[in-house]
Amino acid sequence: MELALLYSGGKDSSLAALILDAFYDVELVTAHFGLTADFEHGRQAADALGFPFDTVELDREVAEKAVGLMLDDGYPRNGIQRVHEHALESVAERDVVAIADGTRRDDRVPTVSRATAQSLEDRHEVDYLAPLSGFGRSAVDRLAERELVVETGPSGEIPRADYEGELRALIRAEHGTEVVNSVFPAHDQTIVRGRA
Q1: What is the rounded distance in angstroms from the CA atom of residue 46 to the CA atom of residue 168?
Q2: In this structure, what CATH number is given to the domain that contains residue 41?
Q3: CA-to-CA distance for 169 and 186, rounded, in angstroms?
Q4: What is the rounded CA–CA span in Å between residue 113 and residue 26?
Q5: Predicted model pTM
Q6: 153-172 burial, b if ≥16 CB within 10 A, otherwise e?
Q7: What pLDDT digit, counting tens, does each position of 53-74 carry?
Q8: Which residues have C-beta within 8 Å of that of residue 141, sequence separation ≥ 6?
Q9: Which structural domain, as residue segments, surrounds residue 116?
């Protein structure tokens, strides 16, 4: 059974791929806006884990609206949420029986509500899976340490294949680095370099 996993190259989506691999033919799919070539980091991580990889290009208008939300709010939550839902919609249009992501139980953003999941499933005739939805951060960290070779660093500096980097680039191009730093709180991100 074919499954498309929304893939950033980080430890969460990589662990989700390892879990789902027992049940599905997993393809890792990085969603991007075509603003940077950061999706290549996803390809490298997928290759290191031995999974097939592809990309899906998202609607640039969604990025611009997300940036508008972030600038209005002063934080990224609502913009990231909008992009994640658009990415799931785009991946659901593939010829697969299931779609998935690496969202965890205690993620603040993105999250997928029960209603959103059911809507995706009904409209696209796919199953939506969130295999880490019962895992907290410490459990994910322990599993990642055991199963993956992970590079960790400050957000915006660690090479990743997620749309956050592109949203940062869009804000930086239009408003400068200072605005990027004021909208996005400092946090660590990960990129997977292989299996442990």
Answers
A1: 23
A2: 3.40.50.620
A3: 16
A4: 23
A5: 0.95
A6: eeebebbbbbbbbbbbbbbe
A7: 999 999 999 999 999 999 999 9
A8: 11
A9: 2-195
